[in-house]
Specification:
Number of strands: 8
Helix content: 40-55%
Shape: globular
Radius of gyration: 16 Å
Bound molecules: NADP nicotinamide-adenine-dinucleotide phosphate
Number of helices: 8
Structural class: alpha/beta
Distance between the termini: 28 Å
Strand order of the largest sheet: 3-2-1-4-5-6-7-8
Strand content: 15-25%
Largest sheet: 8 strands, mixed
Order of helices and strands: EHEHEHEHEHEHEHEH
Length: 206
């Protein structure tokens, strides 16, 4: 497998990149700037001792089978236009959390904008960059994956490559409204209890 993190220069992208590089997955960090991509890739390579590539977003997307959109919600429309061709037949995974008052999910918006041949899922909203970037510890949380068959399978496999994470099938893409919104609650809990890496675990499954 090969994974491209679009906007992988941010905290969430670097955190996921580091965890997957350590798991032996081929990782490419994408950016709107070649220099920022190169710097982030170098940083993750140094953290992990694994070779990580840094490329412009379209080149990163072209190279990988699985595309993770680690960009802010406000960038979704522009990025989906720029990458239209590169996203054909790819598995697209969104960890994007839209503003609290957004009525749909970011994942459903991405489905509307993505090529028909692509498969779309959402995951990794409820795991924070702080926990991902602390490579000295397992992440210890559940990752609920919502969406379409192929992308969902890919996201669940990728989630379970990260030590401490259990992947759960959260059903259809529409349920992303719930997992995306939960992030706002987790952010509030982190503030309230003075923590940086609160996560969610469901009981009674196994
Ligand atoms: N941080 C977390 O703990 C966390 C947790 C759960 C979910 N998420 C979600 O994961 C996504 C990434 O989070 P983050 O904290 O890493 O975000 P970020 O640092 O704000 O942005 C990530 C990268 O996206 C690119 N970018 C910024 N504005 C853009 C635009 N208008 N169009 C296209 N690209 C743009 C930038 O890369 P270049 O300038 O290099 O192109 C930036 O480094 C967000 O949607 C967030 O909701 C984050």
């Amino acid at each position: 497998v090969s994974v491209a993190l679009i906007g992988g220069t941010g905290e969430q992208g670097r955190g996921l990149a580091a965890r997957w590089a350590l798991a032996g997955i081929e990782v490419v960090i994408g950016s709107r700037s070649k220099e920022r991509a190169r710097r982030a890739a170098e940083e993750v390579s140094t953290m992990t001792g694994k070779k990580v590539l840094g490329l412009m977003n379209p080149d990163a997307a072209e190279r990988a089978e699985i595309i993770i959109l680690t960009i802010p919600f406000r960038g979704v429309e522009a990025i989906m236009k720029t990458l239209k061709k590169e996203l054909e037949e790819k598995k697209i995974i969104s960890p994007i959390v839209p503003p609290r008052d957004y009525r749909k999910s970011a994942a459903e918006k991405i489905r509307e904008l993505a090529p028909k041949s692509a498969s779309v899922a959402s995951a990794f909203h409820n795991v924070g960059a702080h926990a991902l970037l602390d490579l000295s510890k397992p992440v210890e949380c559940d990752v609920v994956v919502c969406g379409e068959g192929e992308a969902k399978r890919a996201a669940m496999e990728l989630a379970e490559k990260i030590p401490g994470i259990r992947a759960l099938d959260g059903g259809s893409l529409e349920n992303s409204r719930i997992t995306e919104a939960l992030t706002h609650l987790i952010i509030q809990l982190n503030k309230k209890y003075g923590k940086k890496a609160i996560g969610i675990k469901f009981t009674g499954i196994s």
